[in-house]
From TrEMBL:
Domain Disease resistance R13L4/SHOC-2-like LRR, residue spans: 120-339
Protein name, per record: Disease resistance R13L4/SHOC-2-like LRR domain-containing protein
Organism: Penstemon davidsonii
Pfam families, per the entry: LRR_14
Keywords: Leucine-rich repeat, Repeat, Signal
Length: 348
């Protein structure tokens, strides 16, 4: 009886292994023409293939990690993998059969193209989806919100078009959202503030329109917000300056108007602020303090006017300051690159 039970368990394990084998083999066939198929992925035991990782107990595929710039994942012996051949159609539907997959990282191969198959949203265990630095086109799957375990979504540096799906606000565990340097259009989902775990949101270098959602200010864990080089208009929400851990805010090269919120200068943690090349106007608020610490503050190429705030001279640190191409009454750029005021680190 005991022997029969063991045989049944082994048979069950082999059946699951066979299912994954078929999926990985189809994936291998899709990248024929590159040395990964002939050098690194040989034999029937795909769990020892370079970049393929399995659970040691179930022999199910849990991770696929193929980074072009990572020598540990891209070199077999003294041969570097070459995926620049005929690897197109990056993600075949076969990968959607790997229902225990938690990590899918295929980054920086540059020549890889194709679309993200909609069925990828069926991988309910997926925690990391990183396809950055390729030539992936098409749209982000509309039901991306089904991947509720997702912690990292990085699709930056591709040719993805269309809108950011509204379902993305269902990714309650998401910490990194990077869709920068694509061809995305339309507005940022208004309820993005529901993603309370987010620490980085990178959407720069797209063609996004509309205004900055007010709900963004509710992202209390957000440290890095980059919406630069889009077509975003409207006001800079005053509440952004009250975000407790925000350290980097890049909104340059948009169509933002109105005045600069005084809360931005009073935020003690905000160290990198770039609002250049918008249509901001009015006086700068006199809300700098001795605890303000800026590695970079760029407000150039706007329509700001009036006097430069006296409190600017009291900041604890100012690395790079650019107020050029505005209409300030004080235009004095002094020696050593310091503005008219003497900052503590400058020899004014």
């Amino acid at each position: 009886m005991h022997i029969i039970l063991v045989l049944l368990l082994l048979s069950f394990s082999v059946a699951i292994n066979a299912s994954d084998h078929a999926a990985v083999s189809a994936f291998k066939d899709a990248i024929s023409g590159s040395t990964i198929a002939t050098t690194a992925w040989t034999g029937d035991d795909f769990c020892i293939w370079l970049g393929i990782y399995c659970d040691p107990n179930t022999l199910r595929v849990t991770d696929i990690v193929l980074r072009a710039d990572d020598s540990s994942d891209s070199v077999v012996g003294d041969k570097k993998l070459d995926l620049s051949g005929s690897w197109t159609g990056l993600l075949s539907n076969s990968l959607c059969l790997l229902d225990q997959l938690t990590t899918l990282i295929i980054t920086d191969w540059n020549s890889i193209s194709g679309e993200i198959p909609p069925c990828i949203t069926s991988l309910s265990q997926l925690r990391i989806l990183d396809l950055s630095g390729n030539r992936i086109s098409g749209e982000i799957p509309s039901e991306i919100g089904k991947l509720t375990q997702l912690v990292v979504l990085n699709l930056g540096g591709n040719q993805i078009s269309g809108s950011i799906p509204t379902s993305i606000v269902s990714l309650q565990n998401l910490k990194l959202l990077d869709v920068s340097n694509n061809q995305l259009t339309n507005e940022i989902p208004s309820e993005i503030g529901q993603l309370k775990m987010l620490s980085r949101v990178l959407m720069g270098r797209n063609q996004l329109t509309g205004s900055i959602p007010g709900s963004v200010a509710g992202l209390t864990r957000l440290a890095d917000l980059d919406l630069s080089m889009n077509k975003i208009s409207g006001l800079v929400p005053d509440a952004i300056g009250s975000m407790p851990v925000l350290s980097t805010l890049n909104l340059y090269c948009n169509e933002l108007s109105g005045e600069v919120p005084g809360s931005l200068f009073g935020n003690k943690g905000l160290s990198h602020l770039n609002l250049s090349r918008n249509v901001l106007e009015g006086n700068l608020p006199d809300s700098f303090s001795s605890e303000s610490y800026f590695t970079a503050l760029d407000l150039s190429y706007n329509k700001l006017n009036g006097e430069v705030p006296k409190s600017l001279g009291s900041v604890k640190y100012m690395g790079v300051l650019n107020l050029s191409n505005n209409d300030f009454e004080d235009q004095g750029i002094a020696r050593n690159g310091c503005f008219w005021y003497c900052f503590p680190q400058c020899d004014c």
